[in-house]
Amino acid sequence: MEKVRIGLIGAGNIANTHMAAYKQVTDAEVVAICDINIGKAERLAARYGVEKYYGSMEEMIAAETLDAVDICVWNINHSVCAIYAMEHGLNVLCEKPMAYNAQEAQKMKEVSEKTGKVLMIAFVTRYMDDTRVVKDYIDKGYLGEIYYAKAQYVRRHGNPGSWFADKSKSGGGPVIDLGVHVIDRARYLMGLHKPVSVYGATFTKLGKRDNLRTTVGWIPEDASPTDPCDVEDFATAIIRFDNGSVIQLETGYSINDLPKSGLTLCGDKGGMRTGDGPLTLFTEMNNFLVDTKIDINHLADSKDGFAAEIQEFVDCVNGKCECKATAEDGLICMKILDAIYESARTGHEVIIEA
Ligand SMILES: NC(=O)c1ccc[n+]([C@@H]2O[C@H](COP(=O)([O-])OP(=O)(O)OC[C@H]3O[C@@H](n4cnc5c(N)ncnc54)[C@H](O)[C@@H]3O)[C@@H](O)[C@H]2O)c1
């Protein structure tokens, strides 16, 4: 079978990660890379032996015969790139968050429906080994009905700066950048219920803390300690779903506490925690409380999450499977993120309409 021909849009940090993952996917080939900073496109192309590079998406799409694009650009440009590509007959893998806001995500979903093109959102945590193992336990009934989740992604000092700190390009701080990962992962594992209401609070207390060096990953090449910052540095939220379940979110770039990254799922038969520390199942056995540590280091079918995500996208383009990380799920996540910001602004609960 012919390889799926991919054009990569954006040549920054996540594009580099995607390029490494494409090496593990045998039935796809990145044939061209573009970036509005053409020097970055040229360097990434050279690093991975890609012959063609361009200074704009429009030039790349006009010049190349592509099946799909992989969108790795600032959040503000996700929708414009995705809509342009689908309207030019191409399938789309789009980095998280789906868009700058729910309104733009809605337009992307409509264009995907109108054109019949695949629009998959790169919710990479769905494809990670620990998520697959937790899902297997859930599907086999070990947790029973899951009614509460604690979703945490909090850095102690980790604002990447550059466009991440600029709301006009990012749409916000840790809520839209990190919260999106843990909200989607929790919702996916809890059964993809519809959100009905959100209460959120955001804080802008510590800023980027340029007096301290951050060792966080994902710092854009052009980031500088003097970059201005107008995004929140910490947020918490309660997200309620139509089956009565709740996700409690904590996410931050900066806080005077230890960093946290993980997900706890609580069901009426058992609970699980993945993230910092070993994957653990909390149950009752023989009238005792029992914590079982699950060693996932020896999984026979262990996969890199990014490679597994890209493989699924390629399989969707080839018509071999349905996309798991749908535009519908991307849009629902955007509605939750918008609602967190709106609740934080007004100080009141926000109702999410069906
Ligand atoms: N899945 C993950 O774990 C993960 C991790 C990091 C970033 N991301 C997401 O990936 C996206 C990019 O983040 P990054 O860390 O690579 O940022 P980055 O700053 O390293 O790279 C972004 C690149 O996009 C380019 N760009 C912007 N608009 C463009 C356009 N219209 N056409 C072509 N190029 C354009 C910029 O010039 C820049 O080189 C963001 O949406 C971010 O949320 C996801």
Keywords:
15 strands; Dihydrodipicolinate Reductase, domain 2; alpha/beta; six-stranded parallel beta sheet; binds nicotinamide-adenine-dinucleotide; Rossmann fold; nine-stranded mixed beta sheet; single chain; 354 residues
How many β-strand stretches? 15
* C-alpha geometry: globular
Order of helices and strands: EHEHEHEHEHEHEHHEEEEEEEHHE
Which structural class best describes the helix and strand composition?
Answer: alpha/beta
Oligomer: single chain
Bound molecules: nicotinamide-adenine-dinucleotide
Range of strand content: 25-35%
Which strand order does the major sheet show?
14-13-12-11-7-10-9-8-15
Summed over residues and divided by their number, the pLDDT gives a mean of 97
CATH superfamily of the largest domain: Dihydrodipicolinate Reductase, domain 2
Spans with pLDDT under 50 lasting ≥5 residues? none
Cα-based radius of gyration, to the nearest Å: 20 Å
Query: Can you summarize the main beta sheet?
Result: 9 strands, mixed
User: What's the CATH topology label of the largest domain?
Assistant: Dihydrodipicolinate Reductase, domain 2
> What CATH architecture of the largest domain do you see?
2-Layer Sandwich
Give the C-level CATH assignment of the largest domain: Alpha Beta
